[in-house]
Amino acid sequence: MKKKLAKWAVTMLAGAMLALPATGNTVSASGEAKSQVQEETKKIENELNYIYIDEAELDVGAVQSIVLSWGERTSDIRSIDLVVENEDGSRTVLNSQKRVDNLFLYENSFEQGAYHVAELSVTTDLGTKTFTAEDLEINAYFGVGEKVNDSVKSDYIEMESQSGEEAVVTIETANAATVEKNVADALSEQAVPFDKNKKERSNSNLVIVLDPGHDASKHSGATANGVREEVVTLKIAEYCKEVLEQYSGVSVYMTRTDGNCPYPDTNSIDDILKRVEWAKTKDADVFISFHINSSVSGAAQGAEVYYPQGEENAQELAKDIVGELAKLGLKNRGDKGDDSYAVIRHSKRNGFPGLIIEHAFVSNVSDAKWFQTEENLKKLGEADAAGIIKYYGLTKDKGKWEFTGEHWKWKEGNGKYATSTWKSIDGVWYYFDTNSNMTTGWQQIGGIWYYMNSSGAMTTGWQQVGGTWYYMNSSGAMKTGWQLIGGTWYYMNGSGAMQTGWQTIGNQTYYLNESGAMATGWKLVENVWYYFNGSGYLLKGEQTIAGTKWYLDENTGALYTGWHYTAGKWYHHTNEGLKQTGWQFIDGTWYYMNADGVMTTGWQQIGGMWYYMDGSGAMQTGWQLIGRTWYYMDGSGAMQTGWRLLGNHWYYMNGSGAMLTGWQLISGTWYYMDESGVMTTGWQQIGGTWYYMDGSGAMQTGWKLLGNHWYYMNGSGAMLTGFQAIGNEKFYFNASGEMQTGWQFIDNVWYYFNTSGYLLKGEQTIGGQKWYLDANTGALYTGWHFTDGKWYYHTSEGLKQIGWQKIGGTWYYMNGSGAMQTGWQTIGNQKYYFDGSGAMVTGWQLIDNVWYYFENSGELNNQPSSKPPVNDAIKVYYEIAGDSSVTVEQMVNYYKKSGKPYPAEALKAGGAATIEEFCQIYYEECETEGIKAEVAFIQSMIETGFLQFGGSVKIEQFNFAGLGATGNGVSGNSFENVRMGIRAHVQHLKCYANTEPLKNECVDPRWGAWLRGKAPYVEWLSIPNNPNGTGWAGDADYAAKILKGIQDMKKIEVSMN
């Protein structure tokens, strides 16, 4: 008797809400475009196979699972969204969590209530079409925390044939075993290609499972005319098996070999499904169930064979079998495609075709005769076998192996080589290519990959190839995607390689252990706990697991407890994994986590206050040296600013909290903090200077009476010492800063300060005695006094002397300011000469190599009656080296008397903008090297024509002595500035004058050791007059010109300041 399973339906839920398009991405279609989309969308037809609801009733918070099967081929399906509606009308949109071919998995948890599947939205390349439950003719309900009202419960499975009727399945029914046991089954028991159903697989190893319908112990079949279905189906199957086993490459199994039920604890449908599942364990290529038909009408007769609808190969096999039965004389009722039978549907889902042979009608007297004799039963079995043999082209000759010297081939019994085909030889599958060669290694056959080992045998099960694991199913096909193997899920990538470790597949993250097994539940991975739900999804965020709320990392899913370091940042989690934020007191230490939970370090502004966390994140208190700056945090960690009394000391922290040291201007007052930041008071020596801070630390200025002494601090607070002008008066403070009064001996000079500390000046009566204190300095000078480069003479009372003074038997002359005079002086109408000590000379005097006569009164006598004491045989020469006998002023005036304009513009570029600067440089350079300034200066005037140049040497060369200018247009040497040009001149004179070393670095390009000391006198600068045969110039009058210039310059008077 045939058992027909009605169309199925079930549900499951997915946590993901329907993803809405981003704002701004909506495009308004034109009327024509809309019409086209609507027309194309109409092409999306209802292809629902079933919906499977895992639990008809479940607890609140538990996860409901729903599997949906749609159509046969789903390559054009982008997505299918499920809408689940509560009894109050609220809806939840579920996106599929996993997809395998035409199966879609949904998961979600719900609040209390009764729910049903309200709509399906199918999206393809043509668009999206929504089907209501009414459109789909489904009635799929489930309850959460309560039972579904009987009036809305899902329909039950109908066990018997229900032509044209459909039933919706829920798992709560008594026939629950007729549907997939769980979601894993629903995903694994998908249909696979019937890769051994084609005739071209002739003589390949074929596994045929024969199923004698019903059994005598529990599931009896049809009975009529003395015939029992469960008895005759066993006999027919045995005769069929006996014939088939005579053929090459065929393995035949029977689901039962006696009258007992192979699965006595099952109902009829469950028994059928168990038999099909057992056939799968034998790697069945085809499942053929033997039955006899029955009808309420005794007229019905003939044989018919049912096959999976749409499978052409299975239909051809059915046609061959019913054709052989018809040859016996039975009416041919034909081959019929029908997926409503449990045998056919479940076989298809297990990867092989299932056929039902209805041999004849036991209810028909004529047909019943075929079941009443052993001979007829044998004929029926042999006819079944003949149809199978015909379809598969089976032969009895097994053939033999042949080796060509390079390849193995299989030669069939008919003399042909197996070519482009599978071949089962001695229970082992081989594949022979287009050249009839046995293949090894990876082979893609019919779009499917297989692996043949080195002996050519097709492998099945787990295979490690090149260090990578692959899984081949029972037909040898390499599997990809999700695979349920031995109750464990594995994932193979597109190349079939088994994956391990973390994997992102679709929109979900999974963890596959080292053996490739998908993890579920709690899993410790690299010392971190993660949780994977029953489908292997990595859970993230807040999750309730086994009644406990856990906080899993929103990004990684990790259950972090305590401290956790990731991506260069520290986090702290509660024992339940909750990431902590804000202030946290952990193991006796305060930490601050920002809004993202990141442990902060360094400076943090929190609630308007600044805090500092060290490198470990610990909040700091007390003194902290950060960088090179000290800060102070109070007991709460808050950074302090402004004045703070800590211990017995005051400190000041600026607005950024930095402890200040050194001088600080705070609110208009200066304070000094020592190097430890302590505010100082009292006397403080800072940078070698004394300051005074009062009790508040404020730096003092102006007059301060401290103890019995007055002190004065200037505007910067520095204690003054020595002479100080304050206001309109002058004071003197000793080294301790104490203001002095009375007579004070300072730097070997006496001064007098009154009781107010004022320095007295001029004529003063002190202690009844008159004293003369310097009107400018207040100094009490007596006797000789040298100041500002000049000598003065004072009486014992300090009176400065002027005019003629006879001191120690010698006459001196002091000008109007009291300065002692030297050199030539015109006093009255008479000329006098005072030597370097200021003494007036008398008698004959040799002055600048010229003899003069002075009367006893010191007056110059230009017509003396006597001659100077000079021997005419002795020649007096003018030495080049020695002290200068002219002043810078005389040099300047000598130039000005020449009437020549000073070339200021040209010489300014060299550093001598005026004649005064020019002469000063000559004087300084001569003084440095010990050369008489008058010699060098006059020589330069002769050489340059009073700086007018005009010859070969140009003014911009700064060459003032014609160095290197040897005539014939040779311009000579050049120097970088005026001073360097003058220095070279002076050094060249020194080269001639003596053998003394230079004081400055040599810049004279004409310097030569062979010239040293060859012309110590001006007279010898003329080569003709030099006994050494050398000199400066070839002109015999060269020296006379220089000497004449010197005499003229010396006659120039200087001011008597």
What attributes characterize this protein structure?
alpha+beta, Immunoglobulin-like, Aminopeptidase, left handed beta-beta-3-solenoid, six-stranded mixed sheet, 15 helices, 16% helix, elongated, disordered N terminus
Topology:
Blueprint: H1 31-41, E1 48-53, E2 57-58, E3 63-70, E4 77-86, E5 91-94, E6 98-100, E7 103-109, E8 113-124, E9 127-132, H2 133-136, E10 141-144, H3 183-188, E11 206-212, E12 223-224, E13 227-228, H4 229-244, E14 250-254, H5 268-281, E15 286-293, E16 303-307, H6 312-327, E17 332-337, H7 342-349, E18 354-361, H8 365-368, H9 374-392, E19 400-403, E20 408-411, E21 421-425, E22 428-432, E23 441-445, E24 448-452, E25 461-465, E26 468-472, E27 481-485, E28 488-492, E29 501-505, E30 508-512, E31 521-525, E32 528-532, E33 541-545, E34 548-552, E35 562-566, E36 569-573, E37 582-586, E38 589-593, E39 602-606, E40 609-613, E41 622-626, E42 629-633, E43 642-646, E44 649-653, E45 662-666, E46 669-673, E47 682-686, E48 689-693, E49 702-706, E50 709-713, E51 722-726, E52 729-733, E53 742-746, E54 749-753, E55 762-766, E56 769-773, E57 783-787, E58 790-794, E59 803-807, E60 810-814, E61 823-827, E62 830-834, E63 843-847, E64 850-854, H10 888-897, H11 904-908, H12 915-929, H13 933-944, H14 978-993, H15 1038-1050
Parallel strand pairs: 2-10, 11-14, 11-15, 15-18, 16-17
Antiparallel strand pairs: 1-3, 3-7, 4-5, 4-8, 6-7, 8-9, 8-10, 12-13, 16-18, 19-20, 21-22, 23-24, 25-26, 27-28, 29-30, 31-32, 33-34, 35-36, 37-38, 39-40, 41-42, 43-44, 45-46, 47-48, 49-50, 51-52, 53-54, 55-56, 57-58, 59-60, 61-62, 63-64
Protein name: N-acetylmuramoyl-L-alanine amidase
Keywords: Hydrolase, Repeat, Signal
InterPro entries: Cell_wall/Cho-bd_repeat, MGlyc_endo_b_GlcNAc-like_dom, MurNAc-LAA_cat, N-acetylmuramoyl_amidase_3
